[in-house]
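About this split. The held-out portion is used to measure sequence recovery: a designer receives only the structure tokens and must propose an amino acid at every position. Recovery is the fraction of positions where the proposal matches the reference. Here is one held-out target exactly as it appears in the evaluation file.
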């Protein structure tokens, strides 16, 4: 039981805030759970439907909410698609950048980056299947979001490459070109992982080994490049 004398000693504004906080916290938790349910429902439906053919009503019916409740979480279906892009490519981009900051040795960075890529694709297979399908076709807003994420991936990598010895004095244009080659190689690796049967670890390891060798070959070739 709350001591009324103690409440009398607290300003009314603080009492109101204290009383409302638990309710507001629970409401926010419910909102986040519903938002997550909407995203997961969309991902499940996208296994059988193209995004451009997926309706808001299909998603809300799967979640068990009324269509108007959708707009408490997303402005429209395009906004939902853009969120899925950030959950997959955006999260991976931030993880790999953190790995580059941990160790300046390019060999360690290559191995760690490929490990992160493969693990993230496994953990978010529906997301990446969605990315692969939407990258060159489908809804314009989602295609743009994917392109912007990859461009940001390239720009951040070009900045970080300057920390590696051979690239210290490279002009930005050349570092951007190199970063674009590396990012496209990683996209190809992600697509190859998606195509691998889930019960064939040998085939997957071959893809991983190939990716690491390709990245090492790119790095080895840097010493011969003249701007």
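Reference sequence for scoring:
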């Amino acid at each position: 039981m709350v001591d009324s004398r103690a409440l009398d000693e607290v300003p009314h504004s603080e009492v109101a805030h204290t009383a409302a906080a638990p309710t507001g916290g629970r409401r926010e938790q419910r909102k986040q759970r519903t938002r997550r349910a909407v995203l997961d429902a969309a991902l499940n439906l996208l296994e059988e439907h193209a995004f451009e053919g997926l309706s808001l009503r299909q998603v809300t019916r799967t979640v068990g909410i009324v269509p108007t409740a959708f707009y408490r979480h997303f402005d429209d279906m395009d906004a939902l698609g853009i969120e899925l892009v950030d959950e997959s490519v955006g999260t991976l981009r931030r993880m790999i950048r953190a790995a580059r900051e941990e160790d300046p040795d390019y060999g360690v960075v290559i191995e760690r980056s490929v490990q992160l890529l493969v693990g993230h694709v496994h953990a978010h297979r529906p997301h990446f299947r969605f990315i692969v399908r939407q990258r060159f076709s489908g809804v314009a807003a989602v295609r743009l979001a994917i392109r912007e994420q990859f461009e940001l991936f390239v720009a951040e990598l070009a900045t970080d490459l300057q920390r590696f010895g051979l690239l210290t004095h490279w002009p930005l244009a050349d570092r951007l070109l190199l970063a674009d080659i590396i990012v496209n190689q990683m996209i190809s690796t992600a697509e190859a992982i998606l195509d691998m049967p889930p019960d064939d670890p040998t085939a997957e390891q071959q893809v991983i080994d190939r990716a690491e060798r390709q990245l090492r070959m790119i790095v080895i070739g840097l010493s011969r490049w003249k701007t």
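Annotator remark: The radius of gyration is 23 Å.
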